[in-house]
Amino acid sequence: MSAGMLVGTAVVYSRIPSITKHYMEKLQGELTGVMADMVPTQIDDAMPKLPTSTGPAVELPKSPF
Predict the structure, then answer these.
(1) The pLDDT value given to residue 56
(2) What is the predicted pLDDT for the residue at 6?
(3) Helix-strand-coil percent breakdown of the chain, rounded to 5?
(4) Which of 38, 56, 57 minimizes the C-alpha distance to 46?
(5) What are the mean pLDDT values of the chain's consecutive 10-residue runs (65 residues total)?
(6) Which of 31, 28, 49, 29 is nearest to 39 (CA)?
(7) DSSP state of 50
(8) Measured in whole angstroms, how far is the alpha carbon of residue 28 from the centre of its chain?
């Protein structure tokens, strides 16, 4: 029974990095999705409205030569 607990503990302890990596990747994926949903609305709120028409063309200065 002691040997079984020792082996079980060693296996779980050796698997901790891969388990942690799996959950971190899952968390990063969820955070990326949340941020991707939030960013467009923040950008739209910060951007000024674009003009719908333009003015007349600007004349170039005349060359003195």
Answers:
(1) 84
(2) 92
(3) 70, 0, 30
(4) 38
(5) 90 87 91 82 78 83 79
(6) 31
(7) P
(8) 9
